[in-house]
Fold each of these.
Amino acid sequence: MKIHLDPISTTSRPLLLFLAEHDAAHEIVTVDIVQGDTKRPEYTALNPNQCVPTLEDGDFILTEGSAILKYLGEKTGSRTYPGGLRARARVNEAMDWFNTGLYRDLGYGVVYPQILPHYRFTNPVTQTDVRRRSEDWAAGRLAILDRHWLGGGGFLCGPELTIADYLGSCYIAITEFVGFDISPYPNITRWMSTMKARPSWAQTHGPWNALVAAVHTQPRQTA
Ligand SMILES: N[C@@H](CCC(=O)N[C@@H](CS)C(=O)NCC(=O)O)C(=O)O
């Protein structure tokens, strides 16, 4: 099984966490986003979205980080992707919530326009409007994460860690890029500390930590 990813990528790091905590034979193929590897014809043939990650299991190709995590969870029989109908539905629900809700506002609306020029609207008035609305909506979603998903005191889907925690914690970590303060959210803060204390986090986040440190030496983009 080959997994094509870039360790700095938010959608790749959940897979690295999973692989660090599971005994699954695999080969990592590094796709350097910054060097444009996702745009190369041979990679585009695997993943027409020109994004990481991509899984190659024999002749089976799978894109989308969330789908790959579920595939790995099922293939390895991992407890982190529980088999019961409702338990599994809850994990799927949490992952969809991060992908279609929180990440849209927090990632694409608030964080990326500050560090990646192509995510900014050319009209500064439009950009300011979008950023303000995204910040409001992101705050609302973070409050839901804090009170609803994490209010029970454990992980996202209960007392046991699931693949939703691998995904969600890596998504929340993008706040580090721009110094977005998560301290008003005590359960998010607690949960992120728990995730970062796992040995797998340090094992997989070296390139990410270096990138965050480098971004902090650059001037920030205003709205
Ligand atoms: N919906 C996709 C999104 C993947 C995605 O946006 N990946 C980014 C890195 S986090 C990427 O590969 N970008 C390629 C590029 O910017 O050239 C998933 O969840 O896997």
Amino acid sequence: MRIVVAGGGYAGLACLMELRRRMADAELILIDPGEDHLKITHLHETVRRPLRRFRRSYMELGKRIGFDHYRHALDCNKLADFAAESAIDIDGHRLSFDFLVIATGAKPPSLSKSAQVYDRDDLREQDAGDLVSLFLGDETRPRELSVVGGGPSGIQILFELADCIEASRQPIKLRLVDREAKLLGDYPSKLGDYVQDKLVSAGIEYLPQTEYVSSDEDTLQFRDVSTGENLVVQSGLTFLFPGVSPSPCALNSDRYGRVEGYESIFGAGDCARFDSRGDDQLTAQIAVRQGKLVAQNIDRVSRGVRLFEYYFKELGYVVSLGPLDAVGWLFLQDQIVSGLPAFAIKEVVEAQYDLFVAGLDTYII
Ligand SMILES: Cc1cc2nc3c(=O)[nH]c(=O)nc-3n(C[C@H](O)[C@H](O)[C@H](O)COP(=O)(O)OP(=O)(O)OC[C@H]3O[C@@H](n4cnc5c(N)ncnc54)[C@H](O)[C@@H]3O)c2cc1C
């Protein structure tokens, strides 16, 4: 039996590992345009740590777990053809499959941006710390640094930057720009309040209800979403984190993970929305659970037994605020944790994933 997994992020890797555990004889193939699995939940930490620390090569993982990796980007618009032929084309070669899993994640929107503006995909290739060092060393650039996006990723990188700027002792103005009226609006309100207090105490300018439009060399153009007025600010270095959406296409999975309309194609992680009772936000903990569930169900389909439904409920969510602070909820949405205890929880969650990638599965649910 041959199973092809497209996308080697959290969902895809979890799926491959669970498939190998359950189906020792299956031929497993990963297709991903990159060479490495990236622990992208650490991306903001590349302000102070090298990116390579968060990469694991697919070649090394493939040897250990038992899969082959082809560098290729799957074209999701051809799902009907793939299903009809039980095969995909990779650079002119035909690759047949019994099951196909799509776990291609989500991407930021492609906004117009100039040289000193970087988004999530730029940071997959470049250390944020190097970009900050270049900026700090170039006094011809405006002494202002901006982060666009008041969701968890934007906030996490903002406070890493704040810490780094403070250590540099240079008089750099920091700014957070967000389209929404309130920070972390999708989470319990105490989280946004905690972050807002921290912005004030760190002297960071906060522009809510302000939408990024474009950038020139040293300036950013914004629009006030309530009044429609335009705003121009100076910025010598800018990070864009305006959110992500499923990529290259959004899939609808049924409660077992099968992509609607196809028996042999499954979807998991940020690219797939599950029609089920389980939580379905775009997070790594959910991507891992969906990837594992899809693997379980492929094993069960191939043995002709009843499939498992996806019903995972998030155990908590913690946003880090620099190297030693964090805020989030644990087990219940009104159970808020902050400061060092929250930071410690975040570290434990990341360590659990590190163990998982290293081959030790400690996820009990
Ligand atoms: C800075 C940052 C911090 C975050 N912090 C947290 C956190 O603390 N906790 C949390 O739970 N979540 C966090 N998230 C969200 C979390 O990272 C995502 O929800 C998670 O990565 C989704 O996993 P995935 O496998 O669906 O996609 P990804 O991990 O994005 O992996 C997708 C993979 O698919 C590949 N791919 C893309 N297109 C194709 C194609 N056409 N064909 C084949 N392969 C393709 C990519 O190369 C990539 O390897 C954070 C995200 C960011 C950016």
Amino acid sequence: MKILILACVSILTLNISAISQDWDNIKITPIKVHDNLYMMTGEGGNIGVSIGEDGIFLIDDQYAPLTEKILAAIGTLSKDAIKFAFNTHYHGDHTGGNENLGKQGVDFVAHDNVYKRLNEGGSAKEALPIISFNDQLTFHLNGLHINTRHYRNAHTDGDSIVYFNGKNTIHMGDIFFNGSYPYVDVEGGGSWKGLIVAVQSTLNNIDDNTKVIPGHGSLTDKEGLKIYYNVLKDIEGILTPLALSGLSLNDVKKLKPLEKYDGDYGKGFMDPNSFISIVYEDIYRNINQ
Ligand SMILES: [Zn+2]
């Protein structure tokens, strides 16, 4: 298991260093979700931006070398200052800009475990949330009630989904990888089971008109989230019997049980081999603990 984790960590590190050469070519693109509400893509997790009379509410900030570009893109939407910034979880492709923004006086808010992991991970003081919460928090800003809800042990142990009540829009952070295999950060307190619970419970909270911003992938709706949920459930249904019969990870890999999804879903952050390794080991551990 240790070797597996190390292999995964080095894969992730490679991905990040491979793209770090290329910051100059990355464009930050705002996509309108509703009046005064935007999703922005660039490199790393999707950003959420609410603008309005009270100032900017920002969700996640990708990587540090992109901060200037992100601020320039926000500047095309509004000249107001960032009032609050929120982190959906601790990963560097969502919090990498925290320190730059914190030094400019932006106040960060996130779940308690995001604070804990950033702090213990040696992040600068300016990169840390100054407000953290353990369950839910609501921002009353820009005529909206922006409700952030924590989901336990899903992608990590500090995930939040942000509900823009008044705009019928949610930002799901990395609980939702739209169109690709999700990463479950088991070392960071995530779990396959918790990921599915979070998606299922979100589906119960939204309606057919809800706009859904994923952590990665394109803007979608309840239908798009349902497709993702069905894929997760199908994968669970395929892998659970194999784990129950006690097959080793290597034997399972030889069976190529997820081959039908690998072509479409294995092109994102998680390649097919890393994905099945993490998920199978987690399901196996759950069954045999
Ligand atoms: Zn993440």
Amino acid sequence: MYMAAIVGAGPAGLAAAKRLQERGWKSVILEEHAVVGDPVACTGLISSSGVNELGIRKEVEETLLNKLRGAQIFSHNHEMIEVKRTETVAYVIDRGAFDRALAREAIAAGAELRLETGMIDVRKETVFVEHKGRGEIIKAKVIVGADGANSKTRRIMGINTGIENFVHAYQVDVKGHFDPHFAQVFLGNYAKGFFAWIVPENEERARVGLASTSGNVRKDFNVFINEKNITGEACDMCSKLIPVGEPLKATVKDNMLLAGDAAFQTKASTGGGIILGMHAGRICADAIHDHFASDAPLKNYEKGCNALNNDLRLHWKIRQFINSKSEEQIDKLFREMGKAKVGEFLSEHGDMDRPSRFIGKALTKPSMWRLLPQGLKFLST
Ligand SMILES: Cc1cc2nc3c(=O)[nH]c(=O)nc-3n(C[C@H](O)[C@H](O)[C@H](O)COP(=O)(O)OP(=O)(O)OC[C@H]3O[C@@H](n4cnc5c(N)ncnc54)[C@H](O)[C@@H]3O)c2cc1C
């Protein structure tokens, strides 16, 4: 009998497993694939502030590909907002290697990792798994569903999520010539409901991707690379869903809890889920610790996520707000934001993960007051 079975060896599950084990609770991680972090579907862009807060410098340094100083965000009609710092604001990591580094940490703390072990069903403290084609049973007091966007645990808990809460992403590694210091984000008709991106690994290689709600992301991607005249040898591709819905309010049912993409703890504005998913994994582990140590209800996990959810909800509102605008309205908004010096403001105060930390500061900048009508519309979204 394990104290906790964690379904999924991604960042959220591995963060939860390590924390649980450190707090003395025997945990097993169940991963359906033969290798952690393979296959990988991710750009691997994470904020330096998030890395510092989580204390994962070692894992990032081991898997670091590039350091970025900012981003250029383009509207449909090529209006641009630039966020630019003199120091590193984000890292590009080898995501597969990063997950394997997190797994080594969890195992070193004492957690058990079972590969090629897919969770099929859960009944109370019994987890039914398939290992190399054979059915097996694992016993655990608590089950953490950290099994990603298409979570089976979430379905077993009876939580239904419609397809409108996801975008479909497609990404290719391209060899060519790129500015190694900046990520680029493109809003355009080719990326209905989301955006396209170029994230450089170095001067000669970049992750070029697009996510949309059109139902044909490959076609959208081809329109984008033709329009931007992106040429070069394509090396690797991946395709996957990203949750962009509101973070789930109910993430606990009986002895089951959800963390990471499974709980929609993903930034709906950008699709990033590594940093906040790991925070959620740790909060989840702390709630399980309190449950075992002092009989606190597991439901406390939902309360523990309040601050995280405030930021996730802001990301979700930003996404709703952008998606409610026409191409012309977005162009106009970008022009207004340029005059209000939003780029300069974000360069000084922005935080990729936690908008709650800088939105209030915007009110103190007179240049930003011209955006007040849009700000009020945003709040009423
Ligand atoms: C194209 C693309 C680009 C992205 N780029 C970024 C980025 O630059 N930065 C960022 O922060 N985020 C990015 N994301 C999002 C990020 O990848 C996710 O938010 C993050 O991986 C979520 O972590 P997780 O641990 O919740 O789930 P996952 O990383 O999805 O891990 C879930 C694990 O569970 C396993 N699993 C699933 N079902 C079962 C089962 N039944 N039994 C056993 N194991 C199971 C899976 O194999 C997987 O290993 C991107 C996503 C996509 C699709």
